[in-house]
Amino acid sequence: MNAPQQAPESVLVFTATYCEAGNIDEWHSRVRRVLPAARLLVIDDSSPDGTAEHLARIAAADPEFEYIVRAGKLGLGSAHRRAMQHGWDAGYETLVTMDADLSHQPEQIPRLLAALPGHDFVIGTRSGQGSCDYTGFRRLAFVGGNSMARLLIPTGLTEFTTSMRAFNRSALDLLLTTGERDDGYAYFMEVVYRLNDAGLRLTEVPIDFADRTRGTSKIPRAQIAMSAKVLLQLTGHRLAKKYLGAHTSGR
Ligand SMILES: Nc1nc2c(ncn2[C@@H]2O[C@H](COP(=O)(O)OP(=O)(O)O)[C@@H](O)[C@H]2O)c(=O)[nH]1
Ligand SMILES: [Mg+2]
Predict the structure, then answer these.
(1) So what's the pLDDT on residue 182?
(2) What is the pLDDT of residue 8?
(3) Distance 36 CA to ligand 1 centre (A)
(4) What pLDDT is stored for residue 184 in this prediction?
(5) What spacing in Å lies between the alpha carbon of 91 and ligand 2's midpoint?
(6) pLDDT above 70 as % of the chain
C-alpha cells in the first residue's frame, strides 16, 4: 500500500459518532496504527450508549486525539461541516473523513492520501475495482443512487454518497463558503456537486466497504427519498447554468 505523501502532522482524520460504543475503540486503534502521528477528531452527538466515555478514555491515552460532544443529535452533515471548519481553522493541509462503524477500513486511508497531490478532493469508490457488501434494499439504494448521480451530475466519478474522502484546503475553503443544505446522503452528494461545479480537481480510489457488524444504521431510510429530490434539484441547477447561464444558487 502506498505511504502518505504529506507530513502526517498536517493530516486531520475525522469521524462522526452516534451510538458507536462498540466500534470506536477499534476505529481509533486501527487509524492510529496506520497514521501514528496524525491528529484524530471525533464529533459525537451525545450518544445515549456511552460512546463519549470511550472517547474520554481514548483522549486520556492519546495526546493527538480530540473529541467534541454536541448537545444532541444534530445530524451527520452538520458534524462533517463542523469538522471542516475545525480543520480549516487549525491549519491542517488535509482532512480525511470516514464512518466510525468500520465500514470504511482505516488501512485504506493511505490510498486517499496518495491520490490527493494534484487533486483537491478524493473519494473512495465502492464501484469498479472497489467493493460493497450491501445486499437487498441497501444494495438497491447504493447502486440506484450512485447510477442516477453519475447520469445526472457528470463529474467523471462513480461514487457520490460514501463519506470516505480526503480534502485539501482549497476544497475546504470552497465548502465552508457554500453551505450545503441537506443532511445524510444528500449532503454527501451535494458536496461532490459543489466541488465539481466550482472547477476543483476531483478523483477517486477504490475502497472495500463492509456493512457494519456492530450497532445499527442511524440514517433514516427517508433520507434516500430526500437524496433523490436533492439530486433532481442539483441537476436543475446544472442545466440552468449550462443552457441559461443562470446565476442561481441551486436552492
Ligand atoms: N455525530 C453524529 N454522527 C452520526 C449521526 N448519524 C450517523 N452518525 C455516524 O455517521 C456514520 C454513518 O452512519 P451509519 O448509521 O453507519 O449510516 P449507514 O452506514 O449509511 O447506515 C457512523 O459513524 C455514525 O455513527 C448523527 O446524527 N450525528
Ligand atoms: Mg454505516
Answers:
(1) 67
(2) 45
(3) 25
(4) 73
(5) 29
(6) 94
Residue 103 CB-half CA count within 13 A: 25
Ligand 1: does its nearest atom lie under 6 Å from the Cβ of 195?
Answer: no
Q: What is the pTM of this model?
A: 0.92
Nearest to 97 by CA among 170, 13, 19: 13
Q: Is 161 in the pocket of ligand 1 (CB under 6 A)?
A: no
Distance 17 CA to ligand 1 centre (A): 6
Stretches where the chain sits below pLDDT 70 are 1-9, 182, 246-251
Delimit the domains of the chain by residue range.
Answer: 8-244
Whole-number mean pLDDT of the chain? 91
Residue 82 CB–ligand 1 contact under 6 Å? no
Classify residue 96 by burial, with Cβ atoms within 10 Å: 0-12, 13-18, 19+: buried
Amino acid at 43: I
Q: What tens digit of pLDDT does each residue of 23-32 get?
A: 999 999 999 9
CATH superfamily ID and name for 8-244: Spore Coat Polysaccharide Biosynthesis Protein SpsA; Chain A (3.90.550.10)
Residue 18 Cβ contacting ligand 1 at under 6 Å = yes
Measuring from atom 12 of ligand 1, which residue has the nearest CA?
99
- Exposed, middle or buried: residue 233 (CB in 10 Å: 0-12, 13-18, 19+)? middle
Is residue 124 within 8 A of residue 165, CB to CB? The reply is yes
Alpha-helical regions (H) of 68-221: 76-89, 109-115, 136-152, 169-178, 184-197
Question: Using a 6 Å cutoff on CB, does residue 101 contact ligand 1?
Answer: yes
